[in-house]
Design brief:
Layout lengths: L2 H9 L4 H7 L10 H12 L1 E5 L6 H8 L3 H7 L13 E5 L13 H14 L4 E7 L5 E7 L4 E7 L8 H18 L2 E2 L2 E2 H7 E6 L4 H7 L8 H10 L28 H10 L19 H13 L3 E7 L3 E3 L10 H12 L2 E3 L10 H9 L3 E6 L11 H19 L3
Parallel strand pairs: 5-8, 5-9, 9-12, 10-11
Antiparallel strand pairs: 1-2, 3-4, 4-8, 6-7, 10-12
Helix pairs in contact: 1-3, 4-5, 7-8, 7-15, 13-15
């Protein structure tokens, strides 16, 4: 399924000709400019609508298959009792913005971020870095309160399924806040008032785009990665790619035993840019890892979650460092997910983001290895992964709120 297929499905059209006919366009069956313009709202999840005589939020909710609450949330500055003919408002559609049955790319992530920040104006975004190939690394923020937590995903390119996990959680949480509902049986509005949630859902957009096919074979980027991969023929290309497009493994680029990680990986032959396991020339020598470290120092989080795949394991320590409360919280995470709480294996226990956070802040930080199998995990595992991690994500907010 591609973006056009997704938009057509959401629009309830069997094909382009049916959609074009319904929209009063020439039924060419081709993706012309006007057709793509009409399809775009179905990717973003909302429509910009001009008020007509007789319109009300209730009437518009029925017309567009949405709710009055959703329209009110998306238009916080409008009085539903004083609509003026000709003014514009946002109409969120009745389906979720975040798809869970498509490979995620940096472009799809940008569409989701656009749609969610329009639907939920209390959700904010900020670019924290630009990769070597010009893709943004984006941070999202939801909530208030004196403390914060920071969740991140897709440090590794072929573990991209973790990005929609965080994005679906963000959407479910934002919806629960707007509706006065609950998330994992916790009061969403109370959490919103008590803790700031920061998300970096795709730390490595360059690498993710390579693995998910958004970078065309034969392009400059693809050829650069292919040249790096040629020195490591035993690693499948591009499915085995974990690094950024400079060939640096971002989760081995943090100043927490980086020298030991370098020794370990060099001994395995990863002494140059590679699809995985190359630590870089120095700690934090990549824009993505530098941005993560700077953001972490800026927001000073009470706890961090780093999402990876696979193994259904929760890693919670760095060497012999055990932050206060980390074991107890990790045991709660293990109970609600069914994952096991384990020490990080020595061979992979250095220079990761979680390691650096624990060493630097002496607070709970976790690496969550979601799902089972060989990376990249198939989307058929998504629903199970999300269901088992919802409790971890929600209880992380509760911990950040002081609960």
């Amino acid at each position: 399924m591609n973006y056009t297929d997704l938009a057509l499905r959401r629009a309830g059209a069997a094909d382009l000709i049916e959609f074009q006919t319904r929209e009063g366009l020439f039924p060419s069956g081709r993706e012309d400019v006007l057709t793509l313009q009409r399809l775009t709202p179905y990717l973003l999840g909302y429509e910009r609508y001009m008020v007509k005589p007789g319109d009300s939020f209730y009437r518009l909710a029925r017309q567009f298959g949405t709710t009055v609450r959703a329209i009110v949330t998306a238009n916080p500055d409008l009085d539903p009792r004083r609509l003026s003919v000709g003014q514009y408002l946002i109409i969120p559609y009745g389906f979720p913005v975040v798809p869970t049955d498509l490979p995620f790319t940096s472009e799809l992530l940008a569409l989701c971020i656009h749609g969610l920040t329009v639907r939920y104006p209390f959700l904010t975004q900020r670019r924290i870095a630009v990769t070597a190939y010009g893709r943004p690394v984006t941070m999202l923020k939801l909530g208030n309160g004196p403390r914060s937590v920071l969740y991140n995903a897709s440090h590794h390119a072929n573990e991209w399924i973790t990005t929609p996990v965080l994005m679906k959680f963000l959407e479910d949480y934002a919806r629960a806040v707007s509706e006065g509902g609950r998330i994992f049986d916790l009061d969403a509005a109370a959490l919103f008032r008590s803790v700031q949630l920061y998300l970096v859902p795709m730390v490595d957009p360059d690498g993710v785009d390579l693995v998910t096919g958004a970078i065309a074979p034969g392009s400059e980027e693809y050829l650069a990665a292919q040249e790096i991969a040629a020195y490591f023929p035993s690693i499948p290309f591009p499915d085995g790619w974990k690094a950024n497009l400079r060939g640096v493994d971002l989760n081995l680029n943090y100043p927490a035993g980086w020298e030991q990680a370098r020794e370990n990986k060099f001994a395995l032959g990863f002494d140059r840019p590679a699809p995985r396991d190359y630590v870089g020339q120095a700690p934090l020598d990549q824009p993505e890892s530098t941005a993560m470290a700077e953001l972490t120092r800026l927001i000073d989080p009470a706890m961090t979650l780093s999402y990876h795949t696979q193994g259904e394991v929760i890693y919670w320590k760095f060497l012999n460092l055990e932050p206060e409360g980390a074991r107890a919280l990790g045991e709660r995470f293990a109970r609600v997910s069914g994952y096991t709480l384990e020490d990080t294996p020595y061979a992979s226990g250095f220079a990761g983001y979680k390691d650096w956070f624990i060493q630097t802040f002496d607070r709970p930080g976790y690496t969550i290895e979601a799902g089972l199998g060989e990376n990249p995990l198939p989307l058929s595992q998504f629903d199970s992964i999300y269901e088992r991690n919802l409790g971890i994500l929600a209880l992380g907010l509760q911990y950040g709120a002081g609960g």
